[in-house]
Design a protein that fits this description.
- The chain has 294 residues and is of the alpha+beta class.
- It has 2 domains: 92 residues, Peptidase M42, domain 2 (Elongation Factor Tu (Ef-tu), domain 3, Beta Barrel); 189 residues, Aminopeptidase (3-Layer(aba) Sandwich).
- The protein is built from 7 helices and 16 strands.
- The protein has a 6-stranded antiparallel β-sheet, with no helix packed on it. It has a 5-stranded mixed β-sheet with strand order 7-8-16-15-10.
- It is elongated.
- The protein starts with a strand and ends in a 5-residue tail after the last helix.
Length: 294
């Protein structure tokens, strides 16, 4: 599915690329990072231009923080003509050039776009586990979540659903510099069950039932109430006369950057809770959870 990235906005006469961002980025993470341009004639590798500190001084004498418009991508081209000869024009996609790998302890994965590759992985595993069960299960993968939940709106308008489980990769808040005493996304503590973010309020009965299922199956979980952010749930729950929707996600460190980190056991917990919820949901339970829709 889609990931945060960039698009070529323009090509300078001397062969550098100017970009616009697709999804939210902090420019503090971008300087000198490897990128790959998805040109029409193949992939072209480069690096985000880094201005040496000797030349990067703001009005106060300290280093200034650039915007994406201030940055450039260096692909080693001599001029604009060479860039175009390589199949790169305005509108060409650009993304981080990163390969995933297991970390030293063997239980954590580091790589790019874990928001939302982990959600996609969990959804695929749930579908495989339930393929022999006797109920109607639909699995969707949507695009442009990072650009405004656009794919989710199309899916919502073209389907008839009783319940939506959104599989995500949600931001962890367990690293230095954060208030860890109130952390709700700690690696190794299990799946996040999200009750609230500014785009969606989970039905309280549905949230409580999800926690009850997790407890009964000994699935580790943590409850999340988020002040910021949003997921495809922001569109799905508005479908038809209202689609009951809940977000399940392993916490992921450093999302919207080149490298993110996830605990594999949290991903397993996300998968197992979704499977347990789906297998536990019958007509009577549905009416008890959502009497106005049953």
């Amino acid at each position: 599915m889609d990931e945060v990235g960039f698009m070529v906005q323009s090509i300078t006469p001397d062969g550098f690329l100017r970009l616009v961002d697709l999804g939210g980025w902090s420019t503090l993470t971008l300087s000198a990072q490897p990128m790959v341009v998805l040109g029409s004639k193949g992939k072209i590798h480069g690096a985000m231009g880094s201005v040496p500190p000797h030349f990067n001084r703001g009005k106060s004498g300290g280093e200034s923080i650039p915007t994406v418009a201030d940055l450039h991508l260096d692909i080693g081209a001599r001029d604009a003509a060479e860039v175009r000869a390589w199949g790169i024009v305005p509108g060409t996609a650009v993304c981080p050039d990163v390969q995933p790998r297991l970390m030293h302890n063997g239980s954590r994965l580091i790589g790019k776009a874990l928001d939302n590759r982990v959600g996609c992985a969990a959804a695929i595993q749930v579908a495989r586990a339930l393929q022999g069960d006797d109920f109607n299960l639909s699995v969707f993968g949507t695009v442009q979540e990072e650009g405004g939940l656009r794919g989710a709106e199309i899916t919502r308008n073209s389907t008839d659903l009783d319940l939506m489980i959104v599989m995500e990769g949600s931001p962890a808040d367990d690293t230095p510099g954060q208030l860890t005493s109130s952390s709700q996304g700690i690696l190794g503590r299990g799946v996040q069950i999200r009750c609230y973010d500014p785009t969606h309020i989970t039905n309280p009965r549905l949230a409580q039932w999800s926690c009850k299922i997790a407890d009964s199956f000994n699935i580790p979980y943590q409850v999340a109430v988020r002040r910021t952010g949003g997921t495809n749930a922001g569109k799905y729950h508005l479908g038809a006369q209202g689609i009951p929707t809940i977000v399940l996600a392993p916490p992921v460190r450093y999302i919207h950057s080149h490298l993110s980190i996830v605990e594999i056991n949290d991903l397993i917990a996300t998968r197992e809770l979704a499977i347990a919820m789906i297998r536990s949901l019958d007509d009577q339970t549905y009416r008890e959870l959502l009497p106005s829709l049953g």
